[in-house]
Design brief:
Blueprint: E1 4-5, H1 16-24, H2 36-49, E2 53-57, H3 60-71, E3 76-81, H4 85-88, H5 93-98, E4 101-105, H6 115-121, E5 131-138, H7 151-163, E6 167-171, H8 175-182, H9 186-190, E7 195-199, E8 210-214, H10 216-228, H11 237-250, H12 254-268, E9 274-276, E10 285-290, H13 298-307, E11 310-311, E12 313-316, E13 319-323, H14 330-343
Parallel strand pairs: 1-11, 3-4, 3-5, 5-6, 6-7
Antiparallel strand pairs: 2-8, 7-8, 9-10, 10-13, 12-13
Bound molecules: ligand TLP.
């Protein structure tokens, strides 16, 4: 039996079309700007985001780090959510490698930051304070339940940042999930942002990579930072070839994963002992917790599920995260609901 892996959409295997494209991709040395497949991917990505230029990077983390280090110098401050991926899960890279000071604001349950909170966090002219340089938003918001953030909110936050002299970076690791949820082009969600990263290697199934997009000048500067970080790649067109398929063939099908996440949530919340922590999913993430009547921990239940070849994310003593993706079909959803029921 195949393994049902719901831990993340990062576990997705490349599609057969990707493997074929990778095998035959024309390549060159990208540090010389001579990889035709990377150049094609960067152009395509920039067009999808409505920006002038793109930069292929190894991961979402590298894309966010490159962006933040391009916007900010040492001692500058970046405002971000306390549940944001850049704050929680990127090993403190902006502080460790860039000397950039994070100012965190509480994320609201829908993944946004209160506009008054952002306004209040922006520093004035005071030699005691770091210089406020950048605001970071995340769409979809991972730890807030995979919630999609609207274009209207992003515009309002971007307007506020710009009015006060800050730039806006969007961690759009799953921006195509947000676009699918709102039924709008991703470029509309990214429009207010000065820079945006999105991942090819999550729900879009490519094996490696993300793209950072922004103005031509911003990407020229980001290219140097990527080199500093050791991210100048050579014949990586082999990877970009899969990224092109990801953008052309996989970005519009994500609502199928959202429908399966809803089916999974509907089935699981009927099981005694389980509750949906963040309500019905709007995209591809289901957050679940065990109620007080259950004595087992989430890790113990995950072990029982693993015996049935089902892998789920354990994100707290009593909490799970289940993520649907291309390799999770209707039968896998049903099997998972049955296995949870038996494990409890
Ligand atoms: N998220 C991973 C884990 O790191 C938690 C996951 O399984 O969801 N931004 C967001 C919003 C992300 O969710 C992630 C990965 C990244 C950036 C980083 O991407 P990678 O893993 O490519 O560095």
């Amino acid at each position: 039996m195949e393994i049902i892996d719901l831990r993340s959409d990062t576990v997705t295997q490349p599609t057969p079309a990707m493997r074929q494209a990778m095998a035959s991709a024309p390549v060159g040395d990208d540090v010389y700007g001579e990889d035709p497949t990377i150049n094609r991917l960067e152009k395509l990505a920039a067009a999808k985001m409505g920006k002038e230029a793109g930069l292929f990077v190894a991961s979402g983390t590298m894309g966010n780090l490159t962006a933040i280090l391009t916007h900010c110098g040492r001692g500058d401050e970046v405002i971000m959510g306390n549940l944001g991926h850049t704050f929680l899960f990127e090993a403190g890279g902006v502080a460790a490698l860039g000397g950039v000071h994070p100012y965190t604001l509480p994320n609201l349950p829908d993944g946004t930051l209160e506009l008054e909170g952002i306004a209040g966090a922006i520093r004035g002219e005071d030699i005691h304070a770091p210089v406020s340089r950048l605001l970071v938003l995340e769409n979809t918001h991972n730890r807030c339940g995979g919630t999609p953030i609207s274009a209207a909110y992003t515009q309002a936050a971007g307007d506020l940042a710009h009015l006060r002299g800050l730039s806006l970076h969007l961690d759009g690791a799953r921006i195509f999930n947000a676009a699918g949820a709102y039924q709008v082009p991703a470029s509309e969600l990214a429009k207010p942002a000065d820079s945006v990263t999105f991942c090819l290697s999550k729900g879009l199934c490519a094996p490696v990579g993300s793209v950072l997009c922004g103005s031509g000048d911003f990407i020229r500067r980001a290219r140097r930072i990527r080199k500093q970080l050791g991210g100048g790649m050579r014949q990586a067109g082999i990877l970009a070839a899969a990224g092109i398929i990801a953008l052309e063939e996989m970005s519009d099908r994500l609502p199928e994963d959202h429908a399966r996440a809803r089916a999974l949530a509907e089935g699981l919340c009927k099981i005694q002992g389980l509750e949906l922590t963040m309500g019905m999913p709007a995209t591809n993430m289901v957050f679940l917790s065990l109620d007080e009547g259950v004595t087992l921990t989430a890790a113990q239940i995950a072990d029982r599920l693993a015996e049935k070849k089902i892998k789920v994310g354990v994100v707290g003593a009593k909490r799970f995260r289940l993520v649907t993706h291309y390799w999770i079909d209707d039968a896998a959803v049903e099997q998972t609901i049955k296995a949870f029921s038996a494990a409890l």
